[in-house]
Amino acid sequence: MSTFTKVLLATDLSPQADKLTECLFCLCPDTETEVVLAHVFDDDDDADPDGSSFKKARSRLDGYKNDIEQAGYEEISIVTPAGEPCETLSRLAEENDADLMLVASHRKGFLKRALMGSTTYELARATMIPLLINKDEEDEVTENLLDTVLIPTDFSRKSLEALNVIRSLREYVGKVLFVHVVEHSRNKHDYKEKYGSAKMFLQELVDEMKIFGIEADYRIAHGVASKKIAAICERDNVSLIMMTKTGADMTNGDDLGSTSENVVLNSDCAVMLLPAEDSDEEDTFS
Asked: UspA domain: from which residue to which, for each copy (predicted)?
């Protein structure tokens, strides 16, 4: 059974957002999953049921609903409030007891510093539930999100929250790739010790996955964590990064230096951010 039982699929009705239904099917294969389709209008006039903007949006949302029903899902609702998108979607997630939110990133603009106030980025900072950010462009072929899942870890409990999701979806996961980045070492001897310890822990994680029948491997890198993760994603054709949202930076917006934020901003593949159970624990990647 999937970890997620009620999903908020937030769409701006763009071609990129059209691919979120495939993400839903991958992450929530249980057709008893409840789905809330949400489109937030900028103002009350657009949300007027008698207006042309509302009718066009509603027609598109009905199309989404039909596609999801055709896949076997039965509990599907549509909500179309007006307001500031990030605040409104966060409120909708809480009101509907959603345990997963799906959004699309317009990757070309999303990577520009000037657009860091975008809805997707604001949600990455603010939302308190798991958030899937899909980055497929309109002309890209959508791949199975679970083909190759990369899990960055510093071996803290919170950095391994993704294992709970992986275990629940073990029948659908192709491969798990654990990544540990040694960002700082005093000298070659210090790095060798850290490398040896990491290798031991990573092998334990790989062996655990194999117990669940999941193919797994690991990578160890030395340098800036977010850059090394991005390079490994490209080299190993990673389909999804699944990582814990850690540190104060991600939730209060004071800084853009944490690994979680840089991975969200710079990765080309989809990213799932998971809330950390213990928000006071330090992120040793940062």
From this structure: 4-133, 147-274
